[in-house]
Design a protein that fits this description.
The complex is a heterotrimer of chains A (190), B (224) and C (463). Chain A is an alpha+beta fold and 190 residues long. Chain A has one domain (53-187). Helix content of chain A is 27%, strand content 26%. The radius of gyration of chain A is 28 Å and the shape is elongated. The model of chain A has no long low-confidence stretch (mean pLDDT 81). With 224 residues, chain B is an alpha/beta fold. In chain B, α2 packs parallel to α3 and α7 (172-180) crosses α8 (188-202). Chain C has 463 residues and is of the alpha+beta class. In chain C, strands 6, 7, 8, 9, 10, 11 and 12 form a seven-stranded mixed β-sheet that branches. A five-stranded antiparallel β-sheet of chain C has the order 2-1-5-4-3, with helices on both faces. In chain C, α1 runs antiparallel to α2 (67-78) and α8 runs antiparallel to α10. The chains are: A alpha+beta (190), B alpha/beta (224), C alpha+beta (463). Chains in contact: A-C, B-C. Chains A and C meet through α1, β1, β2, β3 and α2 of A and α1, α3, β3, β4 and α4 of C.
Chain lengths: 190, 224, 463
């Protein structure tokens, strides 16, 4: 057996062994032919042509200058007060945070429920806003009002704490039961 | 005129030998068998004998022994073989010399003549060897108790020659020359076998000789 | 062509063969098993992703705010990360999910409405990404599966397969070693036996052990061959010996009768006398030849054992030279001992040594005006005995051949008379070798040939 052939055979063997990588990866993605649960169906199976469509709605956040600024969020349509306020409570994303956006609604802020009736949003919360410092209170309120406005609470919102309506503090110092957009327009970022 | 006995079974060789020795002035008795040879010797003793080893009937060795028992004459054994064992056997049987066939006839002739010339040296002084008394002018070796040891003339000559050296070493070649009278066609085995036979006769312990001593690489010497 | 060790080649072949076979087997097995394992894992993961996507669909339909909680519970339950995308924005994701795991190509494919999957290597993490469009809820669900466990399993499998291949290779080599030894041993035995026989141990035979049929055949054939050879050798030796033996008696008669004729020479006519001269001359050659032949035959057959004695070399040489010269009626060359040689002891068979000296001096007489001197000296740790002549020397190309039987060299052709038997120097060489010495031809100081015999010297144990 010549030296050359021997070396060649050893190499072949080695290559064979080396070709055994672990999990094989692919260059490009491949399509799945058969998807279960009728996931590709345009409507939700088992419902009467039910479907969900997402729309974009603004939430209002405190920007770097201390004004209220809108950021867009996706919510299922129709947009309910519940879902948009839920997004509001999640606060800015980390990227938005880097850009200087904050939310004055505290972390532990609990929204019990929010309903819309006669264009007035009733926002039921667990703890009163009065626990916040004055300025933050106003900004937080502003965030709620402006965000609610864009989903139909055009006449304003009423804050209830555990179901009991409370007076809300306005930027001008007065208190009202139902606060609306116009009251907080001064806080908007021009 | 010297008388020679030739015992040889091969007719041609025997005839040729007879012619040769007669041509040299010998009286020749020739026999084809050992028995006839011994009978011839009994009738008229020869001075020297040539005996072939391979004989029908009584072997050459046996013939040699019988002749030796009867006389002191020099006997030359002739054989087709050159094995040392045959040489030893021949000399043990009493022969004085050993010649192999084919031989150079002149050599055989010369040897026979040399054996005839050789006589014991009577002028040597007597000496003692243990409890043996060696008396050259009488040609005898006597025990302290009076019994005589029988040595052939060759053996006697060997002993006296070594004794005359006063303990000096004689090589085999020297011994061949002095005792056998050869200076160029000697076979040193002759010496070795004769020494061995001498030892069995005179040494108290022949295996560990005290008188006839071998000197390695040189020859033999007699220690008194 | 370089000679290779058969043993080595067999071993290498076995080793490589075992390696190759076991590698192929291990690879195929591994690849096969991997395929199955990967496939199974994928199917399982895909099913899981369908279930999760369906759950997400339902949640988005019934209670969208629950989505983040759902995603995190999926993650904690299955260790896979889930991401939900609506339009061009990420809607939500489980806490450990990284959007970078989902490549743009997957995004594009899923956006186009195709359920897509891909196994990717990101920073040495292998992940299986599944992207499912859920048009009913206007979202795309992406699930990222960590394949660590699968990797782990496969690496163990690979390890075992490799170890297995290695072990098989070693066993293969071991097997090769065993087979080789079994196969080669008879060959080695034969070669050893042959060497012994060449050295002269003619009684050597191969022993039949519990062997295979072919080896048995080899053994029997070999033994038969040796026996026949030995028989032939013995026959040949006996022949020469027998012939010479038979010639003894007639030769004796011839010689003796020739001597008788010589005694009666004067009675012959001149023609008769001249014839007698020729007869005598050739007779002596004939005799010498028979003697030499006989000695040669005996030596060949190892019939005559050596009678080795330890003797002093100087005296030995002197006596041999003297005997040799006188035996042939030649002038005796002087024996010179070089100073410093001393008188070392050598071990020789006397008769054979004398024969050697005789033949060399005789040779010098025949072909070179006789020997000028015999010189003793030391050559290294050996004794050198140099027989020098002043003849025309021996040509270098003949210096080995002259010791061959019946070789006639240039010198022989030059001189028409006094031819030897042709065996003289052959006997010399045989005898010299038998006593453990060597002989060679050099140039003598006088311009002729120097026959140099080298003998090992012995220590004097009994000074």
């Amino acid at each position: 057996m010549s030296r050359l052939r021997a070396v060649a055979l050893v190499l072949v063997g080695a290559v064979l062994l080396a070709g055994c990588t672990l999990v094989p990866t692919t260059e490009s993605p491949s399509r799945i032919n058969h998807v279960g649960f009728e996931l590709l169906s345009p409507t939700i199976p088992g419902t009467d042509n039910g479907k969900v469509v997402f729309i974009t709605r603004p939430i209002y956040i405190v920007d770097a200058t201390g004004h209220l600024s809108p950021l867009s969020r996706i919510v299922p349509s129709p947009a309910t007060l519940d879902s948009i306020l839920g997004e509001l409570l999640l606060g800015p994303t980390s990227i938005e945070g880097f850009a200087g956006y904050t939310s004055d609604l505290p972390k532990g802020f609990v929204l019990v429920g929010a309903t819309l009736a006669h264009k007035i949003g009733v926002v039921n919360i667990a703890t009163p806003l009065t626990s916040l410092p004055r300025q933050k209170q106003i900004l937080a309120l502003g965030q709620l009002v402006l965000t609610a406005y864009d989903v139909g609470a055009t006449a304003g919102i009423e804050i209830t704490v555990a179901g009991t309506p409370r007076l809300s503090l306005l930027p001008n110092g007065s208190r009202k039961l139902i606060v609306n957009r116009a009251d907080f327009a001064s806080l908007l970022n021009p | 005129m010297a008388r020679i006995l030739i015992v040889e079974d091969d007719d041609h060789i025997r005839t040729a030998l007879r012619l040769m020795f007669e041509g040299e002035g010998f009286d020749v008795d020739d026999a084809a068998t050992g028995e006839v040879g011994v009978a011839l010797f009994a009738r008229m003793a020869a001075d020297v004998a040539i005996v072939d080893v391979m004989l029908p009937g009584m072997s050459g060795f046996e013939t040699c022994q019988q002749l030796r028992n009867a006389s002191d004459l020099p006997i030359v054994i002739v054989s087709a073989r050159d094995e040392t064992v045959d040489v030893v056997l021949g000399l043990e049987s009493g022969a004085d010399d050993y010649v192999t066939k084919p031989f150079v006839p002149e050599e055989l002739l010369a040897r026979v003549k040399a054996h005839l010339r050789r006589r014991p040296d009577k002028s040597a002084k007597a000496f003692k060897m243990g409890d043996l008394q060696v008396i050259p002018d009488e040609g005898v070796v006597r025990h302290s108790d009076g019994t005589e040891l029988h040595l052939t003339s060759t053996e006697f000559r060997l002993l006296t020659d070594l004794a005359s050296m006063n303990g000096k070493v004689l090589s085999r070649e020297d011994l061949l020359e002095r005792v056998w009278g050869y200076d160029y066609f000697g076979d040193s085995r002759l010496v070795d076998v004769h020494i061995r036979r001498l030892r069995t006769k005179i040494e108290p312990d022949p295996a560990n000789p005290t008188f006839l001593v071998t000197v390695r690489g040189a020859g033999y010497k007699l220690v008194l | 062509m370089r000679r290779r060790s058969l043993r080595l080649r067999l071993l290498v072949t076995f080793g490589l063969g075992a390696f190759l076979l076991s590698s192929i087997f291990a690879s195929l097995t591994y690849l096969g098993v991997r395929h199955v394992l990967v496939d199974n894992q994928q199917q399982t993961d895909l099913r899981q992703s369908y279930e999760n996507a369906a759950l997400i669909r339902t949640t988005l339909y019934t209670s969208p705010p629950e989505l983040p909680k759902l995603l995190n519970s999926i993650q904690s339950a299955t260790e896979s990360n889930v991401l939900v995308r609506a339009g061009q924005q990420w809607l939500s994701k489980s806490s450990n999910a990284a959007t970078a795991d989902v490549s743009n190509t997957i995004l594009a494919s899923v956006n186009a409405g195709h359920a897509t999957d891909q196994t990717i290597d990101i920073d040495n993490r292998i992940i299986f990404v599944v992207g499912l469009p859920v048009p009913a809820v206007d979202t795309q669900v992406y699930e990222v599966f960590q394949l660590k466990n699968l990797e782990h399993t496969l690496s163990i499998l690979l390890l075992y397969m490799s170890a297995g291949a290695l072990l098989t290779t070693l066993i293969g080599m071991g097997g090769g070693l065993w087979v080789t030894r079994r196969a080669i041993r008879p060959l080695l035995e034969v070669s050893e036996a042959a060497a012994l026989i060449a050295q002269g141990e003619l009684s050597t035979r191969l022993v039949v052990t519990r062997a295979d049929e072919e080896v048995q055949q080899l053994t029997e054939s070999f033994n038969l061959m040796v026996s026949r050879l030995v028989e032939r050798l013995e026959r040949d030796a006996r022949f020469a010996s027998d012939v010479s033996h038979e010639l003894r008696s007639p030769l004796t008669t011839l010689a003796t009768t020739a001597s008788v004729l010589q005694q009666h020479r004067t009675e012959l006519s001149p023609a008769g006398q001249e014839s007698l001269n020729l007869l005598l001359a050739d007779l002596s050659i004939f005799q010498a030849l028979v003697e030499d032949l006989l000695e040669m035959a005996r030596s060949d057959a190892g019939a005559v054992p050596l009678a080795i004695e330890t003797v002093k070399s100087v005296e030995l040489v002197r006596q041999s030279v003297r005997s040799a010269a006188r035996r042939h009626g030649l002038a005796e060359p002087p024996v010179e001992v070089a100073p410093g040689t001393g008188d070392p002891l050598v071990q020789v068979d006397r008769r054979r040594f004398e024969r050697v000296m005789t033949n060399v001096i005789d040779n010098a007489h025949r072909y070179a005006n006789g020997a000028v001197a015999v010189r003793l000296g030391l050559e290294g740790n050996q004794l050198a005995i140099n027989i020098d002549d002043n003849g025309s020397g021996v040509p270098p190309e003949e210096r080995v051949q002259v010791f061959e039987r019946f070789f006639r060299g240039r010198a022989a052709h030059d001189r028409g008379i006094a031819r030897g038997t042709g065996l003289g120097l052959a006997l010399v060489r045989d005898h010299v070798l038998a006593i453990g010495g060597t002989i060679r031809i050099l140039d003598s100081p006088e311009g002729g040939a120097r026959f140099q015999i080298l003998l090992p010297m012995v220590e004097d144990a009994h000074p």
